[in-house]
Amino acid sequence: MMYMLMIMTDESSESALSPAAVGEIVAQHEAFGRELRAAGKFVDAHRLHFSREALTIRLQQGKAVVHDGPFAETKEILGGFYLIDVDSREEAIEWAKKLPLRDVGAIEVRPARTGAQWREAAPIRGAMKFVVMFIANYDKPPPRADVFRAIDSHYEISLELAALGKFVGSRSLEPSAAAATLRMVNGGTVVVDGPFAETKEFVAGYFVIACDSRDEAIEWARQLMLGSEVCEVRPVWAE
After folding, report:
1. Distance (Å, rounded) from C-alpha 155 to C-alpha 115?
2. What does the alpha-carbon distance between residue 175 and residue 159 come to, in Å, rounded to a whole number?
3. Cα separation, 147 vs 155, whole angstroms
4. Nearest alpha-carbon partner for 204 in 236, 234, 227, 223
5. What pLDDT, in 10s, does the model give residues 166-224?
6. How many Å apart are CA 169 and CA 17, to the nearest integer?
7. What SS3 state is found at 165?
8. CATH class of 2-236
9. Residues 6+ away with beta carbon under 8 Å from 167
10. pTM across the whole model
11. Are 8 and 106 a contacting pair, CB within 8 Å?
12. Cystine design at 108: which of 6, 23, 175, 213 (Cβ 3.0–4.6 Å)?
């Protein structure tokens, strides 16, 4: 089964780190990635730009309106993720414990569902990658028919993206109630059930796409947010 390890970071704290400290964290992630690949557990990973570079698209009176900034105003923001293929929730948590974790921030472990990595896609083109994150709402679960309509639409759009060399990967996620969160407490890792933040809106899935501009990413996001009232578009760091 696939699990997403979502790395939540306090961006103000991260910005204050010295270049040497950042380099040490990057080196730890590189070692973690090598270990995952050697074990045959690695599927995908991306580091995101800070949330100040994000934009949020919300449906307002039937129109997709673009706002600067992330979808949620919270101290802890998604900074990146790993998608891993493991045999159990317990194994996913054990891998998550190996990630570098500071006294600020957290790691959310959540089951992943349907998605794609097209193996016959055209070579990826585009100046940079963007993640389009779909935001769900606890209070307004969509009708089942709308969910399947959105899945069909995503499939068709992903084929178009793949043919153009714009598609990197996609995945939907289980509801955040299925998550476990790891935090550093008194020098040790503590695992608790539930998502990292108690908020109505949560990440329900994502596409990673390769585009030549922010405006192009927004236009694809407008098409992809069928079945979703909110999505966040954020640049991905070059690998």
Report:
1. 9
2. 26
3. 12
4. 227
5. 999 999 898 888 999 998 888 889 999 988 776 777 888 999 999 999 999 999 999 99
6. 31
7. coil
8. alpha beta
9. 116, 118, 121, 124, 158, 161, 207, 209, 210
10. 0.86
11. yes
12. 6
